[in-house]
Design the sequence.
């Protein structure tokens, strides 16, 4: 039983990062923008939050965990949002190719994270010695009383606040997209920007706002891995391929943030399944790592055959909008 509990806890820990990334990308794609720069933005958010906490703890002799938390959170959101703003400017205003810009942003973001991670490591005294344990303790703090409940407390209430924040954001985004006027306007922009424009909706504004807020949300996934899951430490390629898994999760969730909640924890479990299966060779372990992508392909094939409108991506996804062609 203890092994199963450990597996569930680690699966949820892996899934939180994916849920932040998928929620941010869903918000972006609902506007018609396909942001393949999400993996890089997650790196930028993670290292920026760590840098904010590191310099705060270095400057103050007796750092307060909550203050470090706020500083790191703001640093993550600002830098991640900036990444989304750059993407929006290049693709919406300058009408650059979305795939090229997204992939370039991912390459830049990963380099950004590894470069500054290495630089801070040298300031801290050597490679691998970055640690912001004081601030990290605020991220890892469990829910009081509830986490002490046997079994149920371990499964549901033994996580830091960002785990619950990821679920709340996904639910709020679902309600926003389905139940609010601005959410419906955003969906209209993604389905048919020309029609939305003719109805008086500012297409460029919605694309900008959705992409910037989506990038900020995705950046929280990188911050979670660094400050909560890894305990306030940084190593090169700290996020691995989680950014790409978050994009794959968007398809698995059928562009529905509420579905991404259970999908993220499923993906989290599949990502670490090879660790808990006995007798696997190195080759079979590598095969297990591709299971999430195989599941995504199967879901994509099945949903394309069912041809339900609510299960399909936005019609204008990845396509630039030229108002002059309306």
Sequence:
């Amino acid at each position: 039983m203890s092994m199963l509990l450990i597996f569930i806890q680690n699966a949820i820990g892996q899934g939180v990062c994916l849920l932040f990334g998928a929620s941010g990308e869903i918000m972006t794609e609902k506007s018609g923008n396909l942001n393949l720069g999400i993996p890089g933005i997650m790196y930028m958010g993670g290292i920026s939050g760590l840098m904010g906490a590191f310099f705060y703890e270095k400057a103050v002799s007796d750092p307060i965990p909550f203050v470090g938390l706020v500083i790191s959170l703001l640093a993550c959101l600002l830098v991640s949002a900036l990444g989304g703003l750059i993407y929006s400017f290049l693709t919406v205003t300058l009408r650059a190719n979305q795939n090229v810009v997204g992939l370039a942003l991912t390459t830049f973001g990963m380099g950004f994270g590894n470069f500054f991670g290495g630089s801070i490591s040298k300031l801290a005294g050597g490679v691998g010695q970055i640690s912001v344990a004081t601030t990290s303790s605020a991220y890892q703090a469990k829910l009081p009383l509830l986490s002490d409940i046997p079994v149920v407390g371990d499964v549901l209430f033994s996580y830091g606040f960002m785990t619950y924040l990821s679920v709340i954001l996904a639910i709020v985004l679902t309600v926003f997209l389905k139940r609010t006027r601005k959410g419906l306007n955003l969906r209209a922009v993604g389905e048919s920007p020309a029609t939305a424009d003719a109805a008086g909706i500012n297409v460029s504004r919605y694309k900008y706002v959705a992409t910037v807020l989506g990038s900020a949300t995705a950046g929280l996934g990188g911050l979670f891995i660094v400050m909560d899951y890894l305990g306030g430490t940084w190593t090169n390629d700290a996020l691995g391929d989680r950014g790409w898994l978050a994009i794959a999760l968007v398809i698995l969730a059928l562009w529905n943030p509420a579905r991404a909640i259970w999908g993220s924890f499923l993906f989290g479990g599949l990502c670490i399944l090879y660790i808990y299966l006995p007798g696997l060779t190195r080759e079979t372990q590598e095969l297990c790592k591709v299971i999430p992508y195989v599941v995504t392909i199967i879901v994509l094939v099945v949903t394309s055959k069912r041809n339900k409108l609510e299960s399909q991506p936005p019609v204008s996804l990845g396509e630039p909008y030229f108002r002059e062609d309306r």
Observations:
- The first helix runs from residue 2 to 29.
- Residues 2-325 form a domain with the ABC transporter involved in vitamin B12 uptake, BtuC fold (CATH 1.10.3470).
- The mean pLDDT is 90.
